Amino acid sequence: MTPTVLLAPVMFISAILLLTAGFPVAFTLSGIAILFAFIGAAVGAFDVALLSSLPLRLIGLMENDLLQAIPIFVFLGVVLQKTTIAGDLLEAMSGLFGTRPGGLGISTLLIGVLLAPMTGAVGATVLTMGMLTLPTMLSAGYDKRLASGIVCAAGTLGTILPPSVILILLATMIQSGYVEAMARTGQHISSPLLTKHIYLGALVPVGLLLVLYIAYVALTAWLQPHRCPPVTMPAERPLTARRILIAIAVPVGLIVGMLGAIVTGWIYTVEAAASGAILVSLLAFARGELTLERFADSLRTVMRLTAMVFALMIGALTFTLVFRGLDGDLTVARWLAQVPGGPAGATAAAMLVAFVTGFFLDATEIILLVVPVAAVPLLALDVDPIWLSVLLAVNLQTSFLAPPAGFALNFVRTIAPPGLGTADIYRGALPMIAIQLVALALLWAAPQTAIAMAGRPPNLPAGHAPPGDPTLRIDPPLAEEPPPPDMLPARK
């Protein structure tokens, strides 16, 4: 192996070390990329002319319809934080389950599932759940570790519950990698990989994880009821069937409306997000909870968060371009092809790398750094893209729970009341990480549970397509890599 071949692996390891040290993600990825581009040019391993394709890639990033939904979902989550919609939902769910041992913990998990699609981001969900449910559980006598673990688990369900921001980024990367992998192997695309396929495939792990979390809380309530005692509901505000129905109908109606419109093809993801944001905003205005001052503050917050997300993606695009210019993708492909076990062994190796990296990097960094490097070689080995997406989504969710860099743990720590220490939060997350590993094992053993739900034919051997189906032939890649394609149908 020549020293120039080692440039790409050294570049990748250097980025991980700098990110682990706490350097800004966007500037680290861009800076490392430019540095190694000039180092590679100096030793004859990189063509600087490849950097001229970067503007085209950035234009493709800005024109991607799917990514345009990110600021809208961020706005939806910010508005939700500034209103009492989530508080009403907690009160209603607590009235249904909280009077039983473990009932408040189960209510928290169910609320997390209902709030996650409305916020679209793990941070917003964890903070909302933590501020609403954590003090209530602790005041009711819940074990500190159990309460913090439930809040972290409930908040991180938003990672894989469509249409989350994390899932949008993951879908974009997998779509781009799928087209490139098919082009490199000369295969036909018998059916395009759409966002709704990944959304539908993610529903199975969400339901599986929710059932496992609820089973864990129920088992704890049965064996150790003192760790999760029942909650006494206040008598001054009795819950009526009408209040419960209204509190639950808003998030359920929003989820069914948005996902139903996306998966049926009636409207695009960005239009579905806009419809949900408009409806929640009108509801908040009608209730007098979203004043003009709060609305302006929400817009400023959305602008800052959106700028941060797209700065991360610009850094990731620069890093990926230079990494591939140094033939790093070919190096990774050769390494994965040499892993014992064929495609299954290569996929297991990639999952292990993503899992270990999650202890030090958050899910966004893994998506932008690891997925572009590993997705194309795996998809070129005929690994099904939907199954790969589902496995990565569950794996990425673990990164929010894994100490020391777990974002969910850090969010809970920032709002933790006195008496709840960092060690308690970390220990409370350990059973949830074990449940994540069980879910990963079940999905690995039964990949059809995700593929069948998506309703898309699995990958076929190279050069084959179903008889009678229209096929799309992809020409071999050009010397200058085009920007990631938008797999959504063209607008009329």
Describe the structure.
It contains 21 helices and two strands. With 492 residues, it is mostly helical. Strands 1-2 form a two-stranded antiparallel sheet. Helix 10 packs across helix 18, helix 14 (328-337) crosses helix 17 (371-380) and helix 15 (342-357) runs parallel beside helix 18 (385-401). The chain is globular. The model is unreliable at 460-492 (pLDDT under 50).
Kindly list the characteristics that best describe this protein.
single chain, mainly alpha, two-stranded antiparallel sheet, 21 helices, 69% helix
Low-confidence stretches: 460-492
Overall strand count: 2
**Helix vs. strand class:** mainly alpha
Taken from the alpha-carbon principal axes, the silhouette is: globular
Distance between the termini: 51 Å
If you average the pLDDT, what whole number results?
A: 76
| Radius of gyration, taken over Cα atoms and rounded to an integer in Å | 23 Å
Tell me the series of helices and strands, N- to C-terminal.
HHHHHHHHHEHHHHHHHHHHHHE
What strand order characterises the main sheet? Answer: 1-2
Biggest sheet statistics: 2 strands, antiparallel
Question: What proportion strand?
Answer: under 5%
Q: Helix count, per DSSP? A: 21
Helix % is 55-70%
